[in-house]
């Protein structure tokens, strides 16, 4: 399958992918296109389109990060482009995959034992098992490294978990949730694979969201939840290990932000060719072209930044500050671009009929999750100055 250049990829940077990677992206793009027909109604109904999960899994996108489930050797740059492709159709679909593949499978891939990887990664890649990632809490978000309140207590050959989590994507329909909790014995953060059928576990959907409405975020309560030692992530002994997972996924969130920009931009360009004012399509108006050109510039710069961060990941030179800068920069540009694209559409930019409004609203969630803009700026600031200024 031949990969055609996206209108939003002005410099044709997808051509830097290998031939096999380009074929895979072309296949993913073809699989995503039919999903455009369902996302608006599900967004309005505040529901996730569960029937698209098998089609997403069939593309191989859920397993391309791990040797146990890869269908072909895939670079981090390819994985970023995959996130972009999904987000330019819908940010909620991209977020679902980010949670399933990046956070849930990523925790097991980065911190699990060989036995845990063999047991869980193929099931997550096939969509047989749906995963979620439980780090954020009602009273702990940006300060999770120190402020985690969920506790883990060893009791014989099991662990007892108590606490609460908030904003946990996929949690209302997940089969397992990776729960991060502080060990009362050594005050270190550890990770656990928690089946959602475990007694004492409950997940309640968060209502009345204005962004990522299809994503089923939940409040989780853990009351005396017992999990065996075999479900403790064997290579997660402190928050540094949690941070390893976030370092990998934060860069892919940056790519997803570019996808949101690209989706809004492409929708706005289509609109300007169809909408007529003063006897001609508004695509011929100077101020409209100015907004589109600024949007394309932001997208192009963001692709270049993300591609370099992903190359560094492949080389093993990527550090926290590199992915933090990518996430902060791209999400800030995303906010600008979706605003300009909404402006291009005038009053029609606030209804979802033309797609731009959905991207405009969903951008607010990407701006905040996986580390707020300010926290990522401070991670970069610490790298610049050698001084932490988080409080």
From TrEMBL:
The Acyl-CoA dehydrogenase/oxidase C-terminal domain extends over 244-384
Q: Which organism is it from?
A: Agrococcus jejuensis
Which keywords belong to this entry?
Answer: FAD, Flavoprotein, Oxidoreductase
Q: Which Pfam families match?
A: Acyl-CoA_dh_1, Acyl-CoA_dh_M, Acyl-CoA_dh_N
Entries under InterPro entries matching the protein: ACX4-like, Acyl-CoA_DH_CS, Acyl-CoA_Oxase/DH_mid-dom, Acyl-CoA_Oxase/DH_mid-dom_sf, AcylCo_DH-like_C, AcylCo_DH/oxidase_C, AcylCoA_DH/ox_N, AcylCoA_DH/ox_N_sf
Record protein name field: Glutaryl-CoA dehydrogenase
- Essential cofactor(s): FAD
Q: Which molecular-function annotations from GO does this UniProt entry contain?
A: acyl-CoA dehydrogenase activity; flavin adenine dinucleotide binding
Q: Where is the Acyl-CoA oxidase/dehydrogenase middle domain?
A: 132-225
The record's similarity note reads:
Belongs to the acyl-CoA dehydrogenase family.
Enumerate the spans annotated as Acyl-CoA dehydrogenase/oxidase N-terminal domain.
31-128
Give a GO biological-process term.
Answer: fatty acid beta-oxidation
